[in-house]
Amino acid sequence: MSKHQDVEVLLAQLQRELERNGHWQVASPSVEALASTEPFAIDTLTCTEWLQWIFIPKMQFFIEHMHPLPVSFSISPYVEEALQGAQGHEAITRVSIDIDALFSLSSQ
Fold it and tell me: Where do the domains of the chain lie, and which CATH numbers do they carry?
């Protein structure tokens, strides 16, 4: 399986966990909230909003257009901290760790 396909599988798992645990939203945040320039849009979005409305769509865009994927990044520390005590914390964090691991393996 290609790295693009691996990422696609993990993004689908992430979406399923967000949905299963009641974090998937029907209505998009405001344009202003989505335009944040802060890391993880921490000033305008919750962690799950950032995952749903920024991270997943951006990664899906890379996959659909076969653009080069980022070399390395780490989202799991933020996800783990931001979702502490939230419904599905462990499952969502586990998928984010798997995503980080995929990208850290490719940078070696």
Answer: 3-23+34-106 (1.20.1440.40)
36 sits in the region (left: phi over 0; alpha: psi -120 to 50; else beta) called beta
C-alpha span between 55 and 83 (Å, rounded): 16
pLDDT tens, residue order, the chain (108 aa): 788 999 999 999 999 999 999 999 999 999 999 999 999 999 999 999 999 999 999 999 999 999 999 888 999 999 999 999 999 999 999 999 999 999 886 544
Structure tokens at 80: 């783990």
In 3D, which of 68, 24, 32, 13 has the Cα closest to residue 49?
24
| Residues 6 or more apart in contact with residue 56 via CB below 8 angstroms | 11, 14, 15
d(CA 63, CA 35): 22
